[in-house]
Amino acid sequence: MRLEQVFGLAGRTALVTGASRGIGAAIAEGLAGAGATVIVHATTLPKAEATCARIIDAGGRGLGVAGDLVLPAAGTRLIADAVAVAGQVDILVINASAQINAPLDALTEADLEMQLSVNLRATINLLQSALPPMAARGWGRVVNIGSINQSRPKSVVTAYAAIKAAQHNLIQSQARDYARYGVMLNTLSPGLIDTDRNAHRKATDPQAWQDYARSLNWVERAGFSEEMVGAAILLSSDACSFMTGEVITLSGGQ
Ligand SMILES: NC(=O)c1ccc[n+]([C@@H]2O[C@H](COP(=O)([O-])OP(=O)(O)OC[C@H]3O[C@@H](n4cnc5c(N)ncnc54)[C@H](OP(=O)(O)O)[C@@H]3O)[C@@H](O)[C@H]2O)c1
After folding, report:
1. In this structure, are strands 61-66 and 91-94 parallel, antiparallel, or unpaired?
2. If you classify domain 3-249 with CATH, what class do you get?
3. Which of 51, 70, 95, 160 to mutate to test the pocket of ligand 1 (most atoms within 8 A of CB)?
4. Ligand 1: which atom is nearest the Cα of residue 48?
5. Ligand 1 site, CB within 6 A
6. pLDDT tens series, the chain, 254 aa
7. How far is ligand 1, taken at its centre, from the CA of residue 21, in Å?
């Protein structure tokens, strides 16, 4: 069997949420490189189109969509918009998230509301709209971007970590319900990755950032967004036809 038959995504359409930068942008570009048409989502269209431009420059196909996932029913609207621009969604990468660093006793109602809306409600709405058409076509993939914190929570991200664990619980229940239709759902769980999300820490005290990253894992550094791409392609491809409800952790060992 040829490599393209196992991992190739030609003829597939992928929607990647939060693909303007960081892990989402790297995965969007990676899936396009593997042959998928990629629907790039961000909060605004110009941000989505910046990633599309890089995909198109590299010879791929990228189409932009926009929407703030904090809003009620935003996940439902996003799938409708993606279908409107590309016809269907075969691969859904749930990547966009809000992360508020605060221990539980300092977490405000607004911080909680934001994380629940973007990370959990939108995920439920995305799955409700994306899964039935995948099942009807007899093929689908969902790649949920989790976090090492979902299984090893830290006090400073208690609510975020609990919501990530709930997200994976959803992935597992839907994996069981949809496996018989050829729809596989899995979670890719990163450790510390060098993205905008952590840029303030790096900028405030570069040495402390390096020391922290070094102390976290066996590779002794933060990961790069590009290091998430291979596993994302695996979970999006035919190679994943007998794997569902699982977690792949990419954390440098810890
Ligand atoms: N970086 C890490 O160390 C790390 C570790 C473990 C897990 N993760 C997970 O990996 C994923 C990507 O993280 P990252 O570090 O690459 O993130 P990032 O650099 O902060 O980028 C976040 C992305 O999500 C989008 N987004 C944020 N809020 C949104 C909203 N309300 N509605 C729609 N889109 C929204 C942003 O769009 P705009 O550009 O338009 O704002 C952006 O594309 C997240 O699920 C995160 O929880 C990250």
Report:
1. unpaired
2. alpha beta
3. 95
4. 40
5. 18-24, 42-44, 47, 68-70, 95-99, 118, 145, 147, 190, 192-193, 195-198
6. 899 999 999 999 999 999 999 999 999 999 999 999 999 999 999 999 999 999 999 999 999 999 999 999 999 999 999 999 999 999 999 999 999 999 999 999 999 999 999 999 999 999 999 999 999 999 999 999 999 999 999 999 999 999 999 999 999 999 999 999 999 999 999 999 999 999 999 999 999 999 999 999 999 999 999 999 999 999 999 999 999 999 999 999 98
7. 8
Q: Where are the domains of the chain?
A: 3-249
Contacts of 198 (CB under 8 A, 6+ apart): 192, 209, 222
